[in-house]
Amino acid sequence: MTLSQAQTMGFANKPFQIDDPNGLNGTGVAVPQSVVTRDLVHRFYNNQMQINGGANDKFAAYSDAGSLSMGYYDGSKMAMWKLAQQYTLADNFFMGAFGGSFLNHQYLVCACAPQYPNADASPAKGSISAIDVDGNGNFTRLTPAANAPASVLSGPAKYLNDGNLTPKDAAGMYYAVNTMQPAFQPSGNAPASGDASGLYADPAKANTLPAQTQATIADRLDAKKVSWAWYAAAGRSPPPTAARSITAACRISRPIISRSTTTPASILPSRRPIAAST
Fold it and tell me: What keywords tag this UniProt record (predicted)?
């Protein structure tokens, strides 16, 4: 199945059905739900620019997938639709933070953004975002690159630096708002070559977070001696047992940490926010 760039030109400025059996937006090309389309940008600052103060009219303009962000599927053909006829599904999602799942998972357990002290003197210094602010210091947009097109109709938006970290705040602190890796294993970053323990992510990697010390719901439950567990998708690590401690389980070799288009699912560190904390 092929849908050319030329066939996507001139789409009406309105939502369209991706899996239209008569062909996507009149192209004659049918896209079944079994076809996996590309992901859409879901990053902290981009999301705010798309929301545009509540107008919600910039999702295509500030997307890295063009008008695909305006597409939808016929939900009645999905398995969840059948389940909804038998059960009640919680289908309303209220985000705790702008952007993607990394920061929203952090807000789920901590209601806070991960901190990165002295990021400007760290391996992550190149990840500090460049943003424009108004007279009150409020975010307005990611700073455009010198070669950014004058209009999104002329080409995709380009930025000076759309990084993982915020600029420092009034207290001098930097915050991680886009996907970074936990300081502890399992992490998307392997241990440093000299780390004999194998318990830590390489701190020299630009996307390794420092250990987080802000209190999470796990800390609150522990303090009250309430047992808890964290369930997350795509985990394949053997669990701790009476004969294998959590530390030993963390040392087990994992050939695959994160999912890609060519590898099966395994551990997704960004779905395990408590692992970022000491």
Answer: Hydrolase
* Cα torsion angle, 190, 172, 176, 214, sign: positive
What pLDDT digit, counting tens, does each position of 200-237 carry? 999 999 999 999 999 999 999 999 999 988 876 655 55
Q: Is 14 helix (H, G, I), strand (E, B) or coil?
A: coil
Backbone angles phi, psi at 181, to 5 degrees: -105, 145
One-letter identity of residue 85:
Q
**Tokens at 203, concatenated:** 């701190």
pTM of the shown model: 0.83
Read out DSSP for 68-124? Answer: GGGEE--GGGSHHHHHHTTS--------SSSSSHHHHHHHHHHSSPPB-TTGGGSTT
For residue 266 the two structure tokens come to 């395994």
Across-strand partners of 159? 144
